[in-house]
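Protein modeling request. Please complete all fields; requests missing the sequence field cannot be processed.
Requester role: graduate student
Desired output: 3D structure, token encoding
Chains: 1
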Amino acid sequence: MKKQLGITCIVVFILTAFLGVVKATQIQRAIAEYASFSPPPEAVTTITVTKAEWRESFDTVGSFVSIQGATLSAKESGNVVAVRFDSGARVKAGDLLIEIDHSVEDANLKGALARLELTKQNLERARTLRGQSALALSTLEDAQSKVRQSESEVQSIKAAIERKTIVAPFDGRAGIRTVNVGSFVNAGAALVPLYSINPIYFNFSVPQQLAPQLSTNTDVSVRVDAFPDRTFTGDVTAINPNIDEVLRTISVQATVQNPQEEILPGMFGSVHFEIGNAVSILVIPSVSVTYAPYGNSVYVVERKKDAEGKESTTVRQQIVQLGRSRGDYVAVIKGLTEGDEIVATGAFKLRPGAQIQIKQEGTPPLSLEPKVENR
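Delivered output (375 residues):
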């Protein structure tokens, strides 16, 4: 019995040792294969670091105001007898817009003109008699005084009629009238808004440190939410001579061309303008930068040959100091030199020393003034 148990133990030991040897051989083979394994190259696009001439730029927001704008109101009380324009119509300076009843003044004017004519005739007779020494000087002076009084009366009545006649004080577009024929209006009542909006003003503010660099005739580009695919151009025409003591900003006014009168007073807009002289700086696509708390970096492409002369393309992570951005580009202050080849897209899946495969057909379009397209 003991002999059989001993044989069994020996057999089990031999089988265990054999299996151990087999597994050890398999593990060593797997370790050797893993040591020689290298992941496949990652597909990326690259771009060459270049220099560009950039001027200092500034972006801010503001609002549009009309060059001339007013709400025309009644100067005298009365009934509206005529409305000679359509709401929203373009009008010229001097065009008659609204008439308030002035029939009483018209009648008074006829009587005043008749009295003026009579006083002028009396003055002519007095001059004739005075020339013949048949009339006292005081009588002639009295006749002259009556003529002046009649002329003053006529001018006063004409002024009263004009106060009941609303005319356009400047060229512009009329708004929606608030009265109709037959309406009674009180003195000071609003009748119709009138605005001149071509060209149109755009008011905005800039920090006080930009004041020395800003001047009139500076070109500006304005975007409006109502027209996302368009840019309106103009130039700075006025700069306030004082700084706001609370915000430490200076108010600026630009004149923007508005030939189609699409921009309306009160609209909100964003303005972009450049100041100072152009400076040569290194620029790279913003998408090529890997942003991190410890520092921003890019992957620089390196081409090396091994001992057998086989060429491999790898990447090296390079910390960079960035400057201001513009559109799809960002300026590089430190970390790169002109001519360096860096990874443009696909950097998120790389690690230092990783092999890459360059495919330029996937390079995204880049622009200094990118536009968002509605899909």
